[in-house]
Amino acid sequence: MSIEIKVPQLPESIQDATLVGWHKKPGDTVKRDENLVDIETDKVVLECPAPMDGVLKEIKIQGGTTVTAGQVIAILEPGAASTVKPTAIASAAPAVAAPPAVSVAASSPPRTAAPTRAGEEAGAGEMPLSPSVRRLVEENQLDPAGIQGTGRDGRLTKADVLDYLDRGGKQAPPAARVPVPRPAAGRQDRRVPMTRMRARIAERLTESQINTVMLTSFNEVDLSAVMALRSKYKDKFEKERGIKLGFMSFFVKAVVEALKKYPVVNASVEGSDIIYHDYWDISVAVSTPRGLVTPVLRDADQMDFAGIEQALADLAVRARDGKISIEELTGGTFTITNGGVFGSLFSTPIINPPQSAILGMHAIKERAVVVDGHVAARPMMYIAITYDHRIVDGREAVLFLVSIKEQLEDPARLLLQI
Description:
Helix content is 25%, strand content 24%. By secondary structure, it is α+β, with helices and mostly antiparallel strands. The chain folds into three domains: 1-99, CATH 2.40.50.100; 100-107 and 129-174, no CATH class; 198-416, Chloramphenicol acetyltransferase-like domain (Chloramphenicol Acetyltransferase, 2-Layer Sandwich), CATH 3.30.559.
């Protein structure tokens, strides 16, 4: 008996989604819980797993098509591939071409060492890439052959590529890249439609610019004390708590205490009213292959350093893998964004509506500063607050930054909450 594969339930407030690309084609054998297709919403990418072992008999909806919850997108037939006759993709489906399959052979020699004779097709040597992996490889101009795959049959997974990038993986040498053909005369442009997430990000940023009166103030922080404290206890902290001690937990703690002192910075505007939030749900910006998302640390005031670090690590991994829920991305009262991880020295962050302020962290650079009348080299960071001047005055914004500066330059304040 054939089984209909349907679009899974979409997150609340999401009306439709885009079917990004199939991992299988008609006639392919599938295993239970194996992901058949990626479905992209405004904020997250959903997976559509196979409900049981069988054969993908028919694909009804092609990649690039807008779909809704419960819509039938494919037919699965229980049984072996030899007993099931595949059906061509339904002609009623919109004529949007699915992304072409990309394999290692397209940009580099096959992983399999055994050579093929002239005239033979490369078979087992090719290593197909899933749409999400292909997108990462293309965006970062990587050579897939240089990345160790941990998936089935040695295939690359998204986690493999992200780990490679986190370890400082370099771009593939020019010779290993597929050249982009150009016309004989002049240069060629490429027109690529925005993904749903990128379009939503653009919409929200435009909304923020139109609906708020943004102003940015700056300060600088000497992180000598935080770095000394972290250096002294990081090994013991990791051994006992099972997580590395980073800088973000210090900033989250400092932000929560500063928000308690200046609650209007934690507020939002609703019509002609100011909504004061008597809780502290801190959004932390995370860069993903599809764009920037802001998972939320709920009740951050009740979390210790290890709890913050563990929650951030979990949220960041699931955000990059597209497995985070829409509920985990909404409802924050204040946002922290760290452009310093990419080398940014100075920036004016944009408010994440409906919030009224955002803190920007930047790169830590050793600079000459005057300390007790003497010039000394210290690890310094510029910090910025962009705020909605409709409800937050300069006084509150500046004092908010000063409070963060004082706590980070004297971390004992974080423990004493002063």
